[in-house]
């Protein structure tokens, strides 16, 4: 119990550290025209930016990249709690789970993630080629660029209203030195509003796998949540950096309208990460960091169109970061909670998100 307490306390520090790892560098050459930002915690659903012009101007300097050297947030919870506290399922246990569930798509995904076995993911893709969750996972976890590209193309066809496929495609285009194609992908993403990363599906299936292996409901819920893989967050954070560099290129070329359009697409991405109903703290922090990156180059008194200013929104983000720092300290309570209360906490986390669950815990244990 004391070991888990120390680990959960470390989690609080790690979570807050994601914010500092993503602090943006102001874009000094960017235009000072106001960028309209989506309302806080409300997915961007209506405000479409003006389309940026093509071809993309050649950069005067190398594109901005993340060179902080700070560890990506991907799967940080699982790595942190890997000291024996969060048990690993064996292949035998997962084989039983797969047999019980007729090797369904979601169960093959769970077993593949738990074992790091891509062959199970390929089995799922072969048996269930129309399942977007399978193709999305293969696009992120495939073993070759060609395998990832094929899966990404299939995912974009299966989930046409999900901007995640366009975001991942844009990142691939940036890496391949194809900025014009990346802009086209970003433009497609800007018109889509059903952001879905399937995290809760993975959490639920992992919980069922632990239950199948004989773990208690509380152990299964904790293991399912703390062991979830989040490989897409690293990709989206890198995409935010690439888009910031693209915005600078447009600004340096004197194309302020295109720079503003790219900034709006970046803010839409941030809003989608921050606005998911059952978001994790890490997902929310990555979204906040991307939003801050695209607001930081604007004049503080620039209006946002809803009575607020850029400076006011930046202050709100800083206050939200402090709130997250404060409530993550409550994770130290988790090992001491009565089982039923801990179960309720994890259920609230899946339904309403990690921050809301921690606020519930804070209110329940507030001193009179």
Structural features:
single chain; 368 residues; mainly alpha; flat; disordered N terminus
How is this fold's topology laid out?
Blueprint: H1 2-21, H2 76-80, H3 91-100, H4 105-115, H5 118-127, H6 132-141, H7 145-158, H8 164-175, H9 179-190, H10 199-212, H11 217-226, H12 231-252, H13 256-274, H14 281-295, H15 310-328, H16 339-352, H17 354-364
Helix pairs in contact: 1-14, 1-15, 3-4, 4-5, 4-10, 5-6, 6-7, 7-8, 8-9, 8-12, 9-13, 10-11, 11-16, 12-13, 12-14, 13-14, 14-15, 16-17
Question: TL;DR of this structure?
Answer:
62% of the residues lie in helices and 0% in strands. With 368 residues, it is mostly helical.
Annotation, overall tally of beta strands: 0
The value of Rg in angstroms is 21 Å
Fraction in helix:
55-70%
Distance linking N and C termini: 28 Å
Strand content: under 5%
Question: What gross morphology would you assign?
Answer: flat
Number of helical stretches of at least 4 residues: 17
- Specify the structural class: mainly alpha
The main sheet comes to: none
Q: Could you report the average pLDDT, rounded to the nearest whole number? A: 82
Tell me the series of helices and strands, N- to C-terminal. Answer: HHHHHHHHHHHHHHHHH
